Amino acid sequence: MIRSLVKQTKRLTNRKSLVLSPQVHHLRTNAMSNNIVTIEATAKQTSTIIFLHGLGDTGHGWADSIKHIKPSDTKCMCPTAQVMPVSLNGGFPMPSWFDLYSLDTDSRVDEEGVKKATTYVHQLIANEEKAGIPANRIVLGGFSQGGALALYAGLSYPKPLAGILAFSCWLPKHEEVVSAIKNKDIPILQCHGDADPIVQHRLGQLTATVLSKKLTKHQFKTYRGMAHSSCNEELSDAKNFITTCLSN
């Protein structure tokens, strides 16, 4: 199953209609990831997007697509997770934000791994704040496992973010996270394909049901025929969402 997920995740880099040739550079870090693919703002920077890839991918997998939908005054950061053995894949090592045991709703959660990854994401956000970008000008997003981490980290950050993008994902330990939410007005765009064979659509629906009861600006959009991937319609919706979040 996970080998299929990795293959489908990496297909994102082959979307000919969306691939551009951004100028990127890599930032070395002593934190969780070995490097961050960074696409600088083409105008004076006033905001930042941090986007987290899916299992088995790297920051390069989404950099082109996010460049295509970001405003000109926005910097994009796509970090790469550390390589670790993944239990769901028989211990095979690959870039992963935390360990996965199953994708069932009642599966065991790598609590320590999720919290470690969350600390790393929170540090990225804090670093942007230190550089002069307020938390409410930072959009956090992710795909699949990266989307799960984006929801967890974004909803647990002590300051309100500009918004959260959650593609084809679920919320780990949703009861714990929802009970601890302090900012009920954070905008969230959650997107999912109804033909997703990896992270099934019902998992996205379950997360959406839980979040919509607590949050005032949560949207859940379904894309007909989309598998564990992305599409132009989804990215167009994401572009509009980012523009709205950063227009205030």
Describe the 3D structure.
The structure is a single chain. The chain has helices at residues 2-10, 60-69, 111-130, 145-156, 174-180, 201-212, 232-245; strands at 24-28, 35-39, 47-52, 74-79, 83-86, 92-95, 138-143, 163-167, 188-193, 218-223. Strand 3 (47-52), helix 2 and strand 4 form a beta-alpha-beta unit. It has seven helices and ten strands. Helix 3 packs across helix 4 (145-156). The strands form two sheets. An eight-stranded mixed β-sheet has the order 1-2-4-3-7-8-9-10, with helices on both faces. Strands 5-6 form a two-stranded antiparallel ribbon. It has 248 residues and is an alpha/beta fold. Mean pLDDT is 86; it is low at 1-31. The protein has a single domain (2-11, 22-245), classed as Alpha/Beta hydrolase fold, catalytic domain (Rossmann fold, 3-Layer(aba) Sandwich).
